[in-house]
Design goal:
By secondary structure, the protein is an alpha+beta fold. The protein has two domains: 88 residues, 2-Layer Sandwich (Phosphorylase Kinase, domain 1); 206 residues, Aminoglycoside 3'-phosphotransferase, Chain: A, domain 2. 34% of the residues lie in helices and 13% in strands. A five-stranded antiparallel sheet has the order 1-2-3-5-4. A hairpin with a 6-residue loop joins strand 8 and strand 9. Helix 3 runs parallel beside helix 6, helix 4 packs antiparallel against helix 5 and helix 7 packs antiparallel against helix 8. The N and C termini lie far apart (42 Å).
Length: 307
């Protein structure tokens, strides 16, 4: 993976293209895929860390206008350049959303609950879009759920990551949960990374100000969208989503638990620690521990019947 070098000349060129002096360019907290800067007080500049991440920026430039057209609160695209002719680097410039991300808030607070409820309503609007409705998004990737739990569990047992008795128990659990997972759930447009660090809220009111970072957008089962929010925090989001989208299968929680458990076990295939990453699921055991804490406590129905 060859890194993209960001020179002072590149930053000055991008600033000039947007009518800003180079002094207005200030680095801010960045993610795994992109370097991030402020352009003045109202714009955010993102430059991919390597050529491998350019396509994710290109995807954002296409998906964000569609999401905004559906009423989703997300900052508008100002400009996107895939090539290097203008500034020497590819870049994306977005309007800035003022606020803090939910990773920085007390997840148990009433304000956080209101924000998660806002997110549930926003996702219900986003998930109304299906592949046939958006020819401009035909090139988006499709969710790859492989390996299935029935492949993953034996693989982990054979590798010595779990014991065989636990493998049998997990297989039985997945079999029970799968009764609630449609064989063809229907693909919808998903953000793909609905996680606390990508949910920006007004620090005074707790109201959702915007959903950011659309680089993982794809066509997928809508239930997969809920797999990056801890189950202990997901209640208001699910209630608002159900009220707006009215999932008809009657077992939405079982589908969400199926994804959380599947992804928790999937992390055991790559158990290397990832220090420095902010999101809650980065440590290898975090997903499984969150599941344990949630289900071993007193989860409300119907969660209590899914253990």
């Amino acid at each position: 993976m060859e890194s993209i070098h960001i020179s002072d000349e590149s930053l000055a060129a991008i600033a000039a293209l947007h009518g800003r002096p180079v002094e207005a360019v200030r680095p801010i907290a960045s993610g795994v895929a992109n370097h991030a800067f402020l352009l003045g007080d109202d714009l955010v500049l993102r430059i991919p860390r390597s050529d491998d991440f350019v396509e994710d920026l290109a995807k954002e430039a296409v998906v964000i206008p569609v999401a905004r057209g559906l009423g989703v609160r997300t900052p508008a695209v100002v400009s996107f350049t895939r090539g290097r002719a203008e500034a020497g680097v590819p870049f994306l410039v977005l309007e800035r959303v003022i606020g803090i991300d939910l990773e920085q808030r007390d997840a148990s607070s009433a304000a956080a609950g209101r924000a998660y409820a806002d997110v549930g309503g926003q996702l219900a609007a986003l998930h109304r879009l299906r592949p046939g409705d958006a020819p401009d998004l035909a090139a988006l990737p499709v969710e790859d759920a492989s390996p299935s739990p029935w492949e993953l569990v034996p693989e982990l047992a054979a590798a010595g990551s779990i014991d065989r008795d636990s493998a049998r128990w997990l297989t039985d659990w997945f079999t029970r949960l799968s009764q609630h997972v449609p064989s063809d759930p229907g693909q919808v447009l998903v953000h793909g990374d609905i996680a606390p660090q990508n949910l920006i809220v007004d620090p005074r009111t707790g109201e959702l100000a915007g959903i950011v970072d659309w680089g993982d957008a794809m066509w997928a089962d809508p239930a997969a969208e809920f797999a990056k929010i801890p189950l202990s925090e997901i209640g208001p989001m699910v209630e608002a989503y159900r009220a707006a989208a009215e999932p008809a299968d009657g077992a939405w929680e079982a589908r969400l638990l199926w994804y959380h458990l599947h992804w928790a076990l999937g992390r055991l295939r790559d158990p290397a620690p990832r220090p420095g990453r902010r999101h809650w699921s980065a440590p290898p055991a975090s997903r499984m521990l969150h599941l344990l804490r949630f289900l071993a406590g007193s989860p409300p129905a119907p969660w209590s019947r899914l253990r």
